[in-house]
Amino acid sequence: MSDTLQQIKDAVITRQRTEIQGLVTRAIEEGIEPKSIIDHGLIAAMDVVGQRFSDSEIFVPEMLVSALTMKLGLESVKPLLKSEESEPKGTIILGTVKGDIHDIGKNIVKMMLEGAGFEVVDLGVNLTVEKLIEQIEAIGPDILGLSALLTTTMPEMKRAIQELQAKGLKEKVKIMVGGAPVSNSFAEEIGADGYGADAGEAVVLARQLIGV
Ligand code: B12
C-alpha cells in the first residue's frame, strides 16, 4: 500500500480530523484512484475501529470521532465521483432503517450511485416505515435501497418490505439491501430483490434491477 493510503487509514483510526483532508488531497494529487482511497484508506480504517470497539480498546466517543474524520475524508473525494451524464438513469430512494443511525456506508453508496448517473433521494437515518411509504408514494422511485448496520435493526428491513407488500407498492419498486450484517440469504429470506456487499456492487445491482 502507498505511504499516503496508509497515512489516511492511520489518520481515521487515530482521529486526526485536521489532517485527513490534506492527506486525501495529496493522495488524489499522487494519482491514486478515488475508489482505492475509499476502500483501502477510509473503509479499511473503519474495520480496525470496529475491531478495537469490539475489543473494548475504544468506546463510542472515539468511534464517533473516527466516523467524523472519515466523513471529512469522503467530502474531499466526492467531487471526483460526480457523473458527467445529464439524463438520470433512474431514481433511487436510500435510507438507513429505523433505530439505526449508521450512515457512512449509505453515504458512500449514494456517492457511487450518483457517480454512475442515478438520481438519489436520501431519506437519512432512523427511517420509519411510515415516512418511507409516504416518500415512495410521492416520488415513485425505480429502486429503494435500505441500509442496516446493527443485527437488532435488520428486522426493520423485513418490516418495511411487508408493509410495502400490504400497501401494494412492492411490485412497483425494486428493493436492494445492504450493510455489514446483511447477507444475500437474508435478502432472499425477507423478499428483497437484491443484496450488495459494497458500494461497487450496489451500482452493478441497481443497473441490473432496472436494466440500464
Ligand atoms: C462508525 C460506527 C459507529 C458510529 C456511526 C457514525 C455514522 N454517522 O455512521 C457511531 C459511534 C454513532 C456508532 C454507534 C453505535 N454502534 Co457502531 N459502528 C461503527 C463502525 C466502527 C463502522 C461502521 C462504518 O461506517 N463502516 C464503514 C462503512 C463504509 O461500511 P458499511 O456501513 O458496512 O457500508 C458498506 C457496505 O455494507 C455496503 N452498504 C451499506 N449500506 C448499504 C445499502 C445498500 C442498499 C447496499 C446495496 C449496500 C450497502 O456498502 C458500503 C460501502 O462499501 C462499525 C464497525 C464495522 N466495522 O462495521 C460499528 C458497529 C456497526 N457498531 C456497533 C454498535 C454496537 C453500535 C452502538 C449500539 C454502540 C452503543 N453501545 O451505543 C451504537 C448504535 C447507534 C444506533 N442506534 O445506530 C456494532 C454492531 C454490532 C451488531 N452486531 O449489531 C459494530 C459492528 C461495532 C462492533 N464491532 O461491535 N457506531
Question: Which descriptors apply to this entry?
Answer:
212 residues, Methyltransferase, Methionine Synthase (B12-binding Domains), Chain A, domain 1, 2 domains, 5 strands, Rossmann fold, five-stranded parallel beta sheet, 54% helix, binds cobalamin, single chain, alpha/beta
Topology:
Blueprint: H1 3-13, H2 20-29, H3 34-54, H4 60-77, E1 91-96, H5 104-115, E2 119-122, H6 129-139, E3 143-147, H7 154-166, E4 174-178, H8 184-190, E5 194-195, H9 199-210
Parallel strand pairs: 1-2, 1-3, 3-4, 4-5
Helix pairs in contact: 1-2, 1-3, 1-4, 2-4, 3-4, 5-9
The structure holds cobalamin (B12).
Cobalamin (B12) is lined by residues 43, 46-47, 49-50, 53-54, 60, 63-64, 67, 99-106, 108-109, 145-147, 149-151, 176-181, 196, 198-199, 202.
Account of the 3D structure:
- This protein folds into 2 domains: 3-81, Methionine synthase domain (Methyltransferase, Methionine Synthase (B12-binding Domains), Chain A, domain 1, Orthogonal Bundle); 91-210, Cobalamin-binding domain (Rossmann fold, 3-Layer(aba) Sandwich), CATH 3.40.50.280.
- The protein has 9 helices and 5 strands, in the order H-H-H-H-E-H-E-H-E-H-E-H-E-H.
- Helix 3 (34-54) packs antiparallel against helix 4.
- The protein is α/β, with parallel strands linked by helices and 212 residues long.
- A 5-stranded parallel sheet has the order 2-1-3-4-5, with helices on both faces.
- The structure holds cobalamin.
- Cobalamin binds at residues 43, 46-47, 49-50, 53-54, 60, 63-64, 67, 99-106, 108-109, 145-147, 149-151, 176-181, 196, 198-199, 202.
